[in-house]
Amino acid sequence: MATIQFDNLGHSYHPHPSRPEDYALRRLSQEWEDGKAYALLGPSGCGKSTLLNIISGLLVPSEGRVLFDGLDVTRCTPEERNIAQVFQFPVIYDTMTVYENLAFPLRNRKVPAADVDRRVRQVAEALDLTADLKKRAQRLTPDAKQKISMGRGLVRSDVAAILFDEPLTVIDPHTKWILRRKLRQIHEEYRLTMIYVTHDQVEALTFADKVAVMYEGAMVQLGTPQELFENPLHTFVGYFIGSPGINLMPCTLGGDHALVEGIAIPLGTGAMAAAGGMVGGRFELGIRPEFLELTRSGSAGAIPVQVTGVDDLGTSRLATLRMGSQTLKIRLNEEQEIPALDAAVRFPGRWTKLYRDSHLVN
Ligand SMILES: Nc1ncnc2c1ncn2[C@@H]1O[C@H](COP(=O)(O)OP(=O)(O)OP(=O)(O)O)[C@@H](O)[C@H]1O
């Protein structure tokens, strides 16, 4: 397994890129740790496949370098980099048995037969394929075939990294859930460097130690699932992570608070200190539905709101509030009382985020 380093990496499919929008991958310098599970998360067209293809060696970046354990591999082929890849659709040999399919990448590298057998059985066990080992692959369901594909990626212990490109696309929702957990367990057991591309936040957050969120070619945040939830560095992270995402409201600054349609909302001291010297820019206030506090008008720091709807989600409730012309979402537990006439909210300073031109200020 390897440490992966991006050194001033960037890629444009244009012959003469001049504007930031010309780049499918905008300037990136970062180091990814050996043995960790990473997810590349973002909507369609944000540059996930471009970055993954640069890591795997299918694409040479137009700018910068990729290093594996300090060694420049920017122009090396996937074989030379020694990586395993699992794609959206099964890549297996239909005429071979499941055992032969799993053994193939090892036999191809002349691994001794006893080691092949041990490793194949280990991976088959982890993926619940033991009962199918003697079956021909063509007889199996698409789910099982994709499991074999994943097994072929996982079977080699000598690879620098294993790359997964939306590997659960063809899997039915229930099996998807099981496989996601299995991959996580396999990672914990083998400590392989894994990179997993997806546009599904649940997949990314359950699989990865660290999630890289991409937006319009830029990596807007690399963090643990908790960091992305508690401290989104970019409004897109706030919006894309969480269900529903962060509440965002345009605001201006005044003294030690933000003003939303003339309503003063106190800010943490860090945000005010950081925003103090800033001139110009588009400011927004953000708070997650989980961190807003529902109270009654008249209590300290309470801002009157109207409750316009409540959805019961089984284990919690999601209320829709109106504050001036702004609509806010707030998550409430089952027991919490919702005032009918004098509802109000409080914005706890720790969870109230100030953004300038989409980037977190403090
Ligand atoms: N071979 C190519 N030639 C020109 N432009 C490309 C090429 N491949 C991708 N792009 C463009 O680069 C941008 C990033 O695409 P990329 O495929 O990396 O995104 P993605 O996040 O993987 O999307 P998806 O989830 O749809 O695969 C998009 O605007 C896309 O149109």
TrEMBL record:
Cross-referenced PROSITE patterns: ABC_TRANSPORTER_2
GO cellular component: ATP-binding cassette (ABC) transporter complex, substrate-binding subunit-containing
GO MF: ABC-type ferric iron transporter activity; ATP binding; ATP hydrolysis activity
InterPro entries: AAA+_ATPase, ABC_transporter-like_ATP-bd, ABC_transpr_FbpC, ABC_transpr_MalK/UgpC-like, Mo/tungstate-bd_C_term_dom, NA-bd_OB-fold, OB_MalK-like, P-loop_NTPase
Matching Pfam families: ABC_tran (PF00005), OB_MalK (PF17912)
This protein's record includes keyword Nuclease: no
Keyword line: ATP-binding, Cell membrane, Membrane, Nucleotide-binding, Transport
Keyword Nucleotide-binding appears in the UniProt entry: yes
Boundaries of every ABC transporter domain copy: 4-241
Family indicated by similarity: Belongs to the ABC transporter superfamily.
Protein name, per record: ABC transporter ATP-binding protein
